[in-house]
């Protein structure tokens, strides 16, 4: 059974491939360490499980995001783990549903699988967006609509997604009118402001470099479209910035795996480029 016949959003994690095996081991180790720590704390079994699984999933999603944001440098996807694991322990657990939604939106945009989105894919993404809007995170309704719109306009467009974009926009606006969320001014601290600006500037060289990306898609013989990769990267940094503007510090924590991936991938790219120049001079 070919997964590509049913979905363009699923990427097979074959444990026979070294990096896939590595992330499965690392995710399990992170979850196991958290489980043992909860035993040390004397917590109940249910508490141990509910603490271990989110960390394991966080580690896996951070790696997966790294592969989507910078598909050219496969090993760099692991770099985000060096930030997200300490962040998880020191700050709080991220919003895994929101992170998963952004991950799927990136796959919709960059077409890393090499498969045009199926109708079921659009329904799945719409369902996640609607659920997030229902719980009060209306910004994800507009982000989902924007991703659908971009996918219907970029190369090899899925024009059907223009319809889904309109539906998501209308649904989000109607939900806002019905729910009438309280308008509160999010307090933005100087440290957060400079952090976000710094990350954006740090990410820019990688975005520029991605115009020359050469990667073969998962389920086809063709190369990934560099413009779609850049569009997905710009969408990523725009999304996390908007969430931060609305939710403040909590917005950064909720999307911590994405921030961790962006920072780690950007640093990895700059270090690689620097080492390459040094070798050329020598």
Walkthrough of the structure:
The mean pLDDT is 91. The protein is mainly α. The chain has one domain (1-282). The chain has eleven helices and no strands. It is globular and about 50 Å long. 70% of the residues lie in helices and 0% in strands.
Brief digest:
The chain is an all-alpha fold. It has one domain. The protein has helices spanning 18-41, 45-69, 81-90, 96-110, 119-134, 139-151, 160-179, 190-209, 226-247, 249-254, 256-281.
SSE layout and pairing:
Layout: H1 18-41, H2 45-69, H3 81-90, H4 96-110, H5 119-134, H6 139-151, H7 160-179, H8 190-209, H9 226-247, H10 249-254, H11 256-281
The separation of the N and C termini measures: 51 Å
Radius of gyration: 19 Å
| Approximate helicity band | 55-70%
Elements, N to C (H/E): HHHHHHHHHHH
The average pLDDT score comes to 91
β content, as a range? under 5%
Count of distinct strands: 0
| Unreliable runs | none
Question: Main sheet, how many strands, which sense, barrel?
Answer: none
Derived structural class = mainly alpha
| Continuous helix count | 11
- Shape summary: globular
Question: How many structural units, i.e. domains?
Answer: 1
Properties at a glance:
282 residues; mainly alpha; 11 helices
């Amino acid at each position: 059974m070919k997964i590509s016949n049913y979905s363009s959003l699923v990427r097979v994690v074959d444990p026979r491939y070294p990096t896939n095996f590595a992330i499965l081991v690392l995710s399990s180790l992170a979850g196991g360490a958290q489980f043992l720590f909860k035993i040390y704390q004397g917590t109940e079994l249910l508490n141990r499980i509910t603490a271990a699984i989110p960390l394991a999933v966080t580690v896996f999603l951070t790696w997966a995001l790294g592969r989507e944001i910078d598909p050219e440098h496969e090993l760099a996807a692991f770099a985000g783990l060096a930030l997200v694991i300490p962040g998880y322990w020191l700050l709080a657990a991220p919003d895994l549903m929101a992170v998963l939604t952004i991950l799927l939106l990136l796959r919709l945009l960059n077409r890393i699988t090499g498969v045009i989105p199926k109708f079921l894919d659009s329904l799945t993404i719409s369902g996640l967006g609607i659920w997030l809007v229902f719980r009060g995170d209306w910004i994800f309704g507009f982000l989902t609509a924007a991703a659908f719109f971009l996918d219907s306009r970029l190369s090899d467009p899925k024009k059907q997604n223009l319809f889904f974009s309109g539906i998501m926009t209308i649904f989000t606006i109607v939900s806002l009118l019905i729910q009438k969320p309280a308008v509160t001014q999010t307090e933005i601290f100087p440290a957060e402001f400079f952090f976000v600006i710094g990350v954006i500037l740090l990410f820019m060289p990688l975005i520029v470099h991605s115009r020359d990306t050469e990667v073969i898609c998962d389920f086809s013989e063709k190369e990934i479209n560099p413009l779609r990769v850049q569009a997905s990267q710009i969408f990523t940094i725009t999304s996390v910035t908007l969430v931060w503007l609305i939710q403040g510090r909590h917005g950064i924590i909720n999307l911590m795996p994405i921030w961790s991936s962006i920072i780690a991938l950007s640093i990895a790219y700059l270090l690689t480029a620097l080492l390459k120049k040094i070798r050329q001079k020598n």
